[in-house]
Amino acid sequence: MKLRDLEYITAIDRHLNFGRAAEACNVSQPALSAQVKKLEERLGVEIFARTNHKVMATEAGHRIIETARDMLKSARQIRDYAAEYRDPISVPLKIGIFPTLAPFIVPYVAGTVRNLSKEMKMIFREAPTKQLISELENRRIDIAMVSGPVDHPSANFTPVFREDLLLAVSNNHRLGNRDQISANEIPVEELVLLDEDHCLREDTLRLCDSKNVGIDMPEDLAATSLLTATHYITQGFGSTLVPALARNFLSAANPDVNMVAIDDPGYGRTIGFLSRKGCPREHILFALCDKIRTDPPPGVAPVM
């Protein structure tokens, strides 16, 4: 059984048409049909049920095609792994970023990578930090941009900048006309928290160090994004902590929200890259980190 055979049957299943599948595989329809027929004969089962009007996978075909997709994915991974060592720039750099950072940093990171190498392609992946760590271990991504420090036995954390946290309140809130407050003025009882997958929720609970965080908010009130949290705030639901890089975006989306600085250096987060130990692209990561420290995004402080 050849990988080309597996490409043929997955293409037919995708297009449900031998002609379109042959075109996608860059082969003639008679050649594709003959090869699939040979594969069915070798396996002793029909993979596709054919009529004059349509083609559909049989029950056995569904299971075979599902396995074929997994095998083709593994084959692509093998090629990518080899290419990483042979020519690290030839394979797209897969970058994972957690949700309360990704919307505000992707254009900056993409531009920074392009400045390093116009040949380097990128694939971005947005997911919670715990999921990113798992995907890094499983080689689904090459590096993960996370809030740290992160201690992991098979990965290194390289910090690049420090980002302040701000208090977002509505303009008619009692703190709405303030530019800055002290940490003990944060109204912890009325803080809107993000869902449990978000590390910013954990940061908020840790920094506020109070069992009363969000206690005055409705029990079922939770947000899956910072944008949703600020919408809640404009509807009279308390306040929330937001990272400095989100300030301009959230202020533009909700002009009735005021971002108040917190006069406490502890209210911030350290952003860096998590990478597998021994990664063949380590030199690319180091160059990226140096570039970010030299020319960081506006509003953050580089970490050397």
Question: Which labels suit this protein?
Answer:
10 helices; Arc Repressor Mutant, subunit A; D-Maltodextrin-Binding Protein, domain 2
Question: What do these coordinates show?
Answer:
It is a single chain. The protein is an alpha/beta fold and 304 residues long. It folds into 3 domains: 3-81, Orthogonal Bundle (Arc Repressor Mutant, subunit A); 93-161 and 269-302, Periplasmic binding protein-like II (D-Maltodextrin-Binding Protein, domain 2, 3-Layer(aba) Sandwich), CATH 3.40.190.10; 163-262, 3-Layer(aba) Sandwich (D-Maltodextrin-Binding Protein, domain 2). The protein has helices spanning 3-15, 18-24, 29-43, 59-86, 102-116, 129-137, 199-208, 226-234, 247-253, 282-294; strands spanning 48-50, 55-57, 93-97, 122-126, 143-148, 155-170, 180-181, 240-243, 257-262, 268-276, 301-302. Strands 3, 4, 5, 6, 7, 8, 9, 10 and 11 form a 9-stranded mixed β-sheet that branches. It has a two-stranded antiparallel sheet with strand order 1-2. Helix 5 links the parallel strand 3 and strand 4 (122-126). Helix 2 (18-24) packs across helix 3 (29-43) and helix 5 (102-116) packs across helix 10. It is elongated, with a radius of gyration of 25 Å. It starts with a helix and ends with a strand. 31% of the residues are buried.
